[in-house]
Task: inverse folding
């Protein structure tokens, strides 16, 4: 009962999912660069559209004493970051240093990304790419440095998964062809055996009749078919010309059905799940 109450309390501390979902959610209003936010949203939106991987960066002014990694995990589950049944989401939570305590940054990885982003690597990303900017109150620069480092890794992981899937399909498809060739070979062997047995059981006939038939075929020249007379050939050409002229040269084109326009892609949180993968750092 106490565990349930604690879980509900932590979920209550996490902000609600915004109505208009975007990759960058600056609730703390610390990214004072609108053009950069627009560019980062476009980068992460393209990543989600092409690969189904989702990276979301959320800034908050307070975590109510929660650890940044735990807060990011709860937020990822509550918002459903990542594809449904794919669990390929990555949540980055940033809390600035303010009257509510020290600055913190937390990563939470979906189940499918825990192998690609182990806790030690998440920690290194935070300390080497983000904290140097955050210590100078350059939150926009620290977030951009993390995004620029993580996007190529997610794209590479997507390419490797696609290559593995294609190779598995090709292997399965090729595995069935061996059985087909074996069946064809067995059928050919059976036909050959049947033909050989049939020839053995057939009478040889009169051997002396064969040379006489061959000599008769040589002595009697083949009759050549009379060539077509020029008048007949001209008449045939004229008839073909008239017949072709009588045929209609054009056909009425059938009306083509109107193509259904594809619905425009819209960024949205897909329903991914998170476990305990990730890391947190403070300054």
Result:
């Amino acid at each position: 009962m106490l565990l349930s109450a604690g879980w509900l309390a932590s979920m209550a501390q996490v902000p609600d999912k915004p109505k208009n979902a975007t990759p960058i959610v600056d609730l703390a209003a610390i990214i004072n660069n609108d053009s950069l936010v627009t560019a980062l949203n476009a980068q992460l939106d393209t990543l989600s559209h092409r690969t189904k991987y989702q990276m979301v960066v959320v800034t908050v002014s307070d975590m109510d004493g929660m650890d940044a990694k735990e807060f990011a995990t709860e937020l990822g589950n509550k918002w459903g970051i990542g594809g449904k049944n794919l669990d390929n989401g990555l949540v980055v939570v940033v809390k600035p240093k303010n009257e509510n305590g020290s600055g913190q940054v937390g990563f939470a990885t979906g189940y499918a990304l825990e192998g690609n982003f182990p806790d030690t690597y998440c920690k290194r990303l935070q300390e080497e790419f983000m904290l140097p900017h955050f210590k100078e109150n350059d939150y926009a620069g620290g977030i951009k440095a993390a995004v620029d480092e993580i996007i190529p890794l997610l794209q590479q992981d997507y390419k490797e998964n696609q290559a593995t899937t294609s190779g598995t399909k090709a292997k399965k498809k090729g595995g069935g062809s061996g059985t087909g060739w074996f069946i064809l070979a067995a059928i050919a062997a059976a036909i050959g055996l049947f033909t050989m047995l049939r020839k053995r059981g057939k009478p040889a006939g009169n051997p002396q009749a064969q040379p006489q038939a061959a000599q008769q075929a040589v002595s009697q020249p083949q009759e050549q078919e009379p060539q077509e007379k020029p008048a007949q050939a001209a008449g045939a050409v004229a008839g073909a010309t008239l017949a072709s002229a009588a045929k209609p040269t054009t056909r009425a084109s059938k009306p083509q059905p109107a193509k259904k326009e594809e619905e425009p892609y819209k960024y949205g949180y897909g329903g991914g799940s998170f476990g305990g993968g990730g890391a947190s750092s403070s300054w």
